[in-house]
Amino acid sequence: MTSHDLVPVPQRLLDSVNSPDDLKTLRRDQLPQLAQELRDEIVRVCSVGGLHLASSLGATDLIVALHYVLNSPRDRILFDVGHQAYAHKMLTGRRDQMATVKKEGGLSGFTKVSESEHDAITVGHASTSLANALGMAMARDALGQDYHVAAVIGDGSLTGGMALAALNTIGDKQRKMLIILNDNEMSISENVGAMNKFMRGLQVQKWFQEGEGAGKKAVQAVSRPLANFMSRAKSSTRHFFDPASVNPFATMGVRYVGPVDGHNVQELVWLLERLVELDGPTILHVVTKKGKGLSYAEADPIYWHGPGKFDPETGDFVSSTAYSWSNAFGDAVTELAKLDPRTFVITPAMREGSGLVAYSKAHPHRYLDVGIAEEVAVTAAAGMALQGLRPIVAIYSTFLQRAYDQVLHDVAIEHLNVTFAIDRAGIVGADGATHNGVFDLSFLRSIPGVRIGLPKDARELRGMLKYAQEHAGPFAIRYPRGTTERVPDGTWPTLEWGTWERLREGDDVVILAGGKGLDYALRATADLDGVGVVNARFVKPLDETMLRAIASRARAIVTVEDNTVVGGFGSAVLEALNAWGLKTPVRVLGIPDAFQEHASVESVHARSGIDAPAIRTVLAELGVDVPVGV
């Protein structure tokens, strides 16, 4: 099945709703039916594979209620991360485009300001919604305007320090705004940490028939029927705010209401209508089920967070037998931890994505998931290294951006023994500009003492990991999204950091490439004479001996990288040649100095001019005899 094969469905309420204004024409008792139709449509659209399913199903009732009460786009509705907002897209005029989500030229998988006036923020990373909402509320008040600001944030995103810091300022400034805490115990992996334990504690405490202190006053300030409503909600939400407990939100100066049933859309509407009128900041804590309404997604929300192609009726799917780079890393580090008891792996909420499920089970006492808190992951690794461990931070390239200062300040200054295993390096494709990992070579090169490697396969990945664990200082090993060949257990090749490998002889024009670019270079030169190809597997340090030799003989050098051309590998080569006074021409091929929109990896590489046909074009421009049409 392709996106063009989606079978039309009979007339539904949903077919008459193409905007928030259309939604408001429905009776309240019709909203549950609309929410179910939205869920059915989400399942149908997501069945083609690669889309965010479980989170969108869980947030549907809440989104219907928000759009029924608020007036978007005048009122600002913000979604943290944005991957749960498929119902929002459908209710704001994009339902007929949902088959294009994450496809080239189609809708983004997240909210995006340039896509719709109803999308309040462009987002893809977690924990940013509250600071954005604070800024919008302060802008509204500074300009003397009148509109509501509502931010939807998951309990997973609330583990991020940026969200907690924003809450602190929100409580201090006391601007009128509504925060919806969408509590489903999940981000992608299970949520972890003290905040998560606090949420679970709220859900199991004894119901208090009468509130005391601030909790009771906050509810009765709206109306006494609201307090009665909370009592009626006991069966679905277990209790209202326990004023006898220490509530961190109230301590920060933010009014807290909840938890309430996040799937009772009519009662959510009733409650939201009253809460949006309160002065100051209010948190509404809603309890939802990730994968709501789809039995197999509710049973395994981790897999169904972003599943492959599946049968929407049965949940049957084709299991992939491909061996990913993440699998290769997970297997290697699980084995490495058996060899070296100092090995300790840290992840910021990406156990499944980083291939660490087996490791977390095999070495539970040498595994730390810090939640969506990349800065904490890096600095915790620094603390471990200071006390004699050899920590490995398993992190996506796009998320390492959030911890640049920690790499520099907490790890690099003291040359600590921390290894960064950087997954999803380079173009990632469908997730687009917010997730492309095309800056790590540039920002890591700028930090003194950080050594950088780009393995061409799982064998080199293992060699680099073992080398890093046996030598002093910080190391960064970057590898792409995609597949590689499996290697036998016990494979630990000896590599000398900073040495390149000639894969194809030739001294007329020499291509220096690493990672995905190396595969393109080999394909581009398969039928060409006089063109050499070098596996430039180390970016810092460069193999200066080989580079000098190449520059002294070659007529031209071509560098190829899956990284921005600004400050990356090509820049490093140019800097070295300039320092040596060598004038060999260098053509730098890489990702242009522009954000790359979502499309397949191959398509982005082609339009960026780094795939095999583009390399052949450049070689022809340099005077190489390149057969046409091959």
- Tell me the overall shape: globular
| Percent in helix | 25-40%
First-to-last CA distance? 32 Å
Low-confidence spans: 199-220, 227-244
Strand content: 5-15%
Mean pLDDT: 88
**Count of helix runs:** 25
Strand numbers in spatial order across the main sheet: 7-6-8-9-11-10-15
Query: How many E strands?
Result: 17
- Mind describing the biggest β-sheet? 7 strands, mixed
Tell me the structural class. Answer: alpha/beta
From the alpha-carbon coordinates, what is the Rg to the nearest angstrom?
27 Å
Task: Provide a quick synopsis of the model.
By secondary structure, the protein is α/β, with parallel strands linked by helices. 38% of the residues lie in helices and 14% in strands.
